[in-house]
Design brief:
This protein is α+β, with helices and mostly antiparallel strands. Helices cover about 45% and strands about 15% of the residues. Among the domains are: about 1-45 and about 180-315, Yope Regulator, Chain: A (2-Layer Sandwich); about 75-175, Yope Regulator, Chain: A (2-Layer Sandwich), CATH 3.30.1460.20. The chain has helices at about 1-15, 40, 55-65, 115-125, 155-165, 165-180, 225-245, 270, 290-300, 305-360, 365-380, 390-400; strands at about 25, 40-45, 70-75, 80-85, 95-100, 130-135, 140-145, 195-200, 205-210, 215-220, 255, 280-285. The chain has a five-stranded antiparallel β-sheet, covered by helices on one side. A five-stranded antiparallel β-sheet has the order 8-9-10-12-11. The longest helix is centred in the C-terminal third of the chain and has 60 residues, at about 305-360. One of its GO terms (molecular function) is actin filament binding.
Length: about 425
């Protein structure tokens, strides 16, 4: 378990150190005592994916359709995300995509819907084929008008549609980027030092706390199974030990505590009731410079997914090891039983070969009587060097073997 936790902790710090160009997949050299890497030698962090595969498939079908058709499709995904795709046969080149996603925070920054920073990020991702419709349709935060006539042909079309399918992830990550980009800002609004509760899934909230020269992200950890708590606790403790080394000095400092940190004092009790403790990361200015900001945000958004992935892989690894161990023990016991049975058979065969014939002969009354007569005859043939008068009579009287019936006799049935 310790090697497993140490390695996976190192893998997570590889991601948080932000020195690789591919932030979501990285090769790991696994130890023989640790679980094998998932999915072809890689740990996949894309449990909370940037691109919606289902939305991408629908948009590609609309773009490649030879005949225009009426489409009014609702799509629901993880995290209470809803997509509404509309297409008209009368105007097949213009399609509408409406997105409803839960806001990370209900604080002052996002009290009036999507902020200007979020809208700016959406415009940067989308190409010329996308136009933002204002106001958005009722019940949705954002409505996009898609002009397929401006989508380039060939392989570039898939690239553009893939970018459009990642708009929801852009909305979600831009909200957190807006909070983290001004780490060293001194002109913080009133009340911003209080914890900001971020929720992209009802059961997985986390907190952002603005402090001098840094921002702290706190994750309350909850599990249903007690065994998962044990695995995760060992992982968090190893994560702190590995993160405190000089090799991973570039990664955000990580701390784990079974009790809530002092900064969360005053928060609702239901949010602080956990069985896995609290994990905190200190984000400083060096972690949000340039492209590191996007990697930092995505690492924080995927932290819950990574912990679940680690617990799941570790539990499966333990179960496989226990099963193999059980099979080896059963095999040893089976071989021991075969050897014991073989020894018993050998003993029986040896005993039968040694005593079987004698037992069969003894069991016959005639043979037994014959052997008794032979023994008596030998005694009667004893000769003494000194002859004693009258001893012949004594010998006939006292040295005669008494007659007795064999207890092994039987009566022949008619």
């Amino acid at each position: 378990m310790l090697n497993n936790d140490s390695q996976t902790s190192t893998c997570f710090l590889l991601k948080l150190s932000w020195i690789w160009t591919k932030p979501f997949r990285f090769k790991v050299e696994h130890l023989s005592s640790s679980p094998p890497p998932c999915e072809g030698g890689f740990f996949n962090m894309a449990c909370f994916d940037r691109v919606s595969p289902a939305l991408r498939e629908i948009l590609l079908k609309l773009y490649r359709a030879e005949k225009p058709s009426e489409v009014d499709h609702h799509l629901y995904e993880f995290g209470s995300v809803e997509y509404h795709v509309q297409s008209s046969a009368a105007d097949p080149q213009h399609n509408y995509l409406s997105i409803s996603t839960p806001l990370l925070s209900q604080g002052a920054l996002l009290s009036n819907g999507l902020s200007s920073y979020t809208m700016k990020m959406v415009k940067q991702v989308c190409s010329d084929a996308v136009e933002i419709v204002e106001p958005a349709k009722e019940g949705y935060q954002l409505t996009l008008k898609l002009n397929f006539a401006k989508v380039p042909s060939g392989k570039d079309s898939e690239k553009v549609i893939t970018q459009i399918s990642s708009v929801q992830a852009v909305i979600l990550s831009s909200q957190l980027k807006e909070m983290l980009r001004n780490v060293n800002s001194q002109d913080t609004p009133q009340g911003m030092n209080k914890p900001i509760k971020l929720v992209y899934h009802p059961r997985e909230p986390f907190y952002i706390i603005r402090q001098p020269q840094k921002i702290t992200a706190v994750f309350p950890i909850r599990f249903r199974e007690h065994s998962d708590v044990i695995i995760a606790t060992g992982f968090f403790q190893e994560l702190m030990d590995v993160g405190s080394s000089e090799k991973w000095a570039k990664a955000p400092p990580c701390t784990w505590s079974p009790i809530p940190p002092p900064e969360l004092r005053g928060e609702p009790l239901e949010d602080l009731s956990t069985n896995g403790g609290f994990v905190s990361f200190d984000i400083s200015s060096c972690h949000v410079e340039g492209k590191k900001l996007d990697k930092t945000v995505w690492s924080l958004l995927n932290f819950y997914a990574y912990v679940k992935k680690h617990v799941k892989c570790t539990r499966g690894f333990i179960q496989r090891r226990m099963q193999k161990r059980l099979e080896s023990l059963v095999e040893v016991l089976h071989e021991e039983k075969l050897e014991e049975n073989g020894n018993v058979q050998k003993v029986k065969v040896h005993a039968e070969s040694r005593y079987g014939g004698k037992l069969i002969r003894i069991s016959k009354p005639k043979n037994f009587k014959r052997r008794c007569r032979d023994f008596t005859r030998k005694i009667m043939q004893i000769r003494f060097r000194i002859k004693i008068h009258g001893f012949q009579h004594f010998r006939r009287r006292w040295l005669t073997i008494p007659k007795f019936s064999s207890p092994l006799g039987y009566t022949k049935l008619k």
